[in-house]
Amino acid sequence: MLCADMVDVQWKDKSGKIRKGVANLEDISLSGACLQFDQPIPLQTDLRINYPKGELMGKVRYCVYREIGYFLGVEFEPGCHWSQQQFKPQHMLDPRRLVLRTVNRISKLAN
Asked: Positive or negative CA dihedral for 91, 95, 100, 105?
């Protein structure tokens, strides 16, 4: 699901110090998420994503810099899954529904 929402993140740096920050949640699925962040976080770092009613735990699987910041791919820990019932980001778009709407519009125009 493509989305946009601000989430709090927490991780330990190499020295073991707990770090905190705010990230933009770019997309989310049952097994992971993509966060836009203002600084890089090393691969394999354990990361906690906090939202109003709970948290999601995972590991950083990729961290790439793109024009506007760092994009972190987070794979959720086994047994930790996202669901809309627990946390629904403010702005959310299901790409499958967008494709279906487009196909339906094209079908109507063709008829």
From this structure: positive
Q: How far apart are CA 89 and CA 23, in angstroms?
A: 13
The dotted CATH code for 2-110 is 2.40.10
Contacts for 77 with CB less than 8 Å, ≥ 6 apart: 57, 58, 59
Tell me the domain boundaries of the chain.
2-110
Cβ neighbours, 10 Å, residue 24: 17
- pTM (predicted TM-score): 0.73
- 57 DSSP β-pair partners: 48
Q: Is residue 11 a contact partner of residue 41, using CB atoms and an 8 Å limit? A: yes
pLDDT tens for residues 2-26? 556 789 999 999 899 999 999 988 8
